[in-house]
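Hi there, hope your week has been kind to you so far. No rush at all, and the record is pasted right below.
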Amino acid sequence: MTRKINFGAIAVYYVIAVICRYIAVKTDLLSGIENGYAQILLRGVGPALGAFAAIKLFSLSNPLSLKGIYKTAALPFLVYWILPAFLIAGTDYFMTGKFPILLMFTVLVYGLLEEIGWRGFLQEQLKSLPTFTSTVIIAILWFIWHVNIEMNTQYMVFLGIIFFGTWGIGKIYKKTGSLLAVAGVHSLNNFFRNGIHDREFILIVVLLAVWIGFVIMYDRKKKPSLTQETV
């Protein structure tokens, strides 16, 4: 039986997400907040608030699982959060003498707030659609949510990045069902706001290789046990 798409819930989710984003980045309403880490989190809180509101208002059965397919949340937390935080912060300390571990976890929490909405809620709501269709819809809505309305070359490149990011993170979410996992992958882009140079590129490749390998290994490990249970 094909699951119906709850367009009302999606509308509520998206309106709340966009309003929160607009207030955070386009107005001075939050200018009194001096804590830089709090400002980072407020820019990304909209999708999470929208998801929780839509689920509550429409009484949706939505998983929003931190652990996903894993037995406990500790495993994805270790692989997708602790590993990148200490690898990136440790490399930064080695190169600059600074150890920005608090910033690392702030960025990861920011990614989680977004992923609660984009994958945990919206991808779940659209999962009855073909993958390409749902990817296009999520990518366009995600792009607009950033309050980017100029249609120049720079933003077209950004839209392309958003599309491939939606596809890639969506694949991880389908495989793991874990918000911790997709938040870690999502945060890679936000870790390197000053551009991607040789060091950043190497770190991205290493982390992606570890994560993809981990997903494949866990998937293979899980399949034999499922086969045994059905025999």
